[in-house]
Amino acid sequence: MKVNNLWITALACGLSLSAYGQQTGGGISSDMLQEIKQAYKGTPADKAIHNAISNNDINKLAVNNDSKNNFDTYFSHKVNSKGITNQKSSGRCWLFTGLNVIRARAIAKYNLPEFELSQNYNFFWDQLEKANLFLQGIIDTRERPMDDKMVEWLFKNPIGDGGQFTGISDNLMKYGVVPSEVMVETYSSDNTSRMANLLGLKLKEYGLALRDAKSSKPEALAKRKTEMLGEIYRMLVLNLGEPPTKFTWTRKDANGKPVETKEYTPQSFYQEFVGEDLKNNYVMLMNDPSRDYYKLYEIDYDRHAYDGKNWTYVNLPIEDIKEMAIASIKDSTMMYFSCDVGKFFDRERGALDVNYYDYGSLMGTTFGMDKKQRIQTFASGSSHAMTLMAVDLDANGKPKKWMVENSWGPGANSGHLIMTDEWFNEYMFRLVVNKKFITNKVKEVLKQTPTRLPAWDPMFAEED
Asked: Which CDD domains does this entry report, sorted A to Z (predicted)?
């Protein structure tokens, strides 16, 4: 269908098909096809591999059994955690990760038992803020044509359940937090796709209405936007419940014994159990070898709230990032961490190991791109956020492996994933560290005026 449409379009525009690069000389000729076919020899080994692949999962056939030997789960430095969370069928890994970092400090500070903050509460406000971000973005660009790159991006991305660390800092500092039992999960918070589709459809309808509004006066547009957000708020309440403005909660010690019962607001609970300036006390680090190191970058419109902060990060060599990660873990401080989790992942062991799957031997070829090349060709990018909480150091202080607290519920390693240091090098992308752990080099980079990258830069898809 696409080929036919392209042909018709070319004829209608008076263009030859060669204008689209489809010249006869670049096609597969009969002689070329015969040469191509020679690559498959049909040997007994080829036939055996074909039979195996035809009837089995490639990953199962590519497993390097030697990599299963000596699977060591000991870590020399580890931050304690209590209770594994489960984002279920939602893209809220960024939110679970951020709240897991925070709850770990609260557990340690107050000697709490297994304790969880309500993801549903902060997700509600995230969705409302994202709706406003979209609608105000439409107002700001309403004089541009529909095929403008920014307008197209807005309509393609009206709302979503994915995100990154600025969504944590802006959201929690504004709306506070509540314990999980104060605003429990619902089906729509656990399974976000249907709600997201309906919210996105409604927002696109509203976006067109704002662009077509007869009055261009700011006051009239602001009033109309507020009315639209009222409808979005109602839809969110129907799906997620209405966020509490105050609640009573009993703090218990590690043995489950009641210590204190108080009335809180979400903001007062945040101040008492977190009490930290998330906007200014943390630095986002990136390992992106496709861009210059020791530079400060800012992603345009990559934020969760219109009045929030764009995602700004320092791009660094991987060894620099490791230095700060190790310092944080040694200080019993977990970190927001994101990576390309689907690569070389052994779900049964909860392990991430570049040697676990030997695709090259199975296919009789090589896969030779490095990290920079994988980024440039869209073969790899950050896809999932987790909580970095352990490192195993050798006698010389060099990391051998790392551990993260995941948000996929109980599983191997009690819901934790273990990654080799080599895997960390290849597929780790983002880390958020407290400023007290950053090096002098990073402090100098933070003085730079950031290089601004466009919102649609493919390297900066939201984690889910």
From this structure: Peptidase_C1B
